[in-house]
Amino acid sequence: MDSEHFPLQGKCHCGNLKLIFNSTKTPDELAVRTCACSFCRKHGIRSTSDPNGNLQIQIMNSQQVIHYRFGMHTADFLICGCCGVYVAAIMHHETQQSFATINVNVLDCAHLVSQNSVTVDYDGETVQSRRERRLRAWTPVTSIEEQNFQP
Ligand SMILES: [Zn+2]
Questions:
Q1: Which residue range is the domain that position 31 belongs to?
Q2: How many domains are there within the chain?
Q3: In the structure, what pLDDT confidence band is assigned to residue 61 with cuts at 50, 70 and 90?
Q4: In this structure, is residue 125 part of a structural domain?
Q5: What is the CA(59)–ligand 1 centre distance, in A?
Q6: Which of 19, 24, 37, 139 is 20 to 30 Å apart from 30, CA to CA?
Q7: Cα-to-centroid distance, 70 and ligand 1 (Å)
Q8: Whether pLDDT at 123 is above 80
Q9: 100 CA to middle of ligand 1, Å?
Q10: At residue 103, does pLDDT exceed 90?
Q11: What is the C-alpha to C-alpha distance for residues 131 and 125, in angstroms, rounded to an integer?
Q12: Domain assignment of residue 1, yes or no
């Protein structure tokens, strides 16, 4: 890992889904987005991503994960099947590289992240423009570790 990265940890409420977000920004430097889509509004999600950082995802019990898709079905919204918390959305790309946007609220440092956010509305996007935006803006996923630990 690059020494310029800040490892920001996060998890769902029960700890089944864990994130290690290696960001090039400190928590207070993260750009926060509030998305206007109905999923994000219903959850009160604040999102962030870092195209120069990377994300590791650890799933303790892969039987207890919901991969929720809606709208254009271009991303998997990872929701814990035990506690119901949404942690990140992942877009799988043709290059085998995946990209993610992260729910700021699940980060341990969430209280240090700015309360100011930019409201974004992606309603007018096509499938292609949506993919292109995510390739530019989302965080490369370096690993998804899935275990079958039954608590
Ligand atoms: Zn959970």
A1: 6-146
A2: 1
A3: very high
A4: yes
A5: 10
A6: 37
A7: 21
A8: yes
A9: 18
A10: yes
A11: 9
A12: no
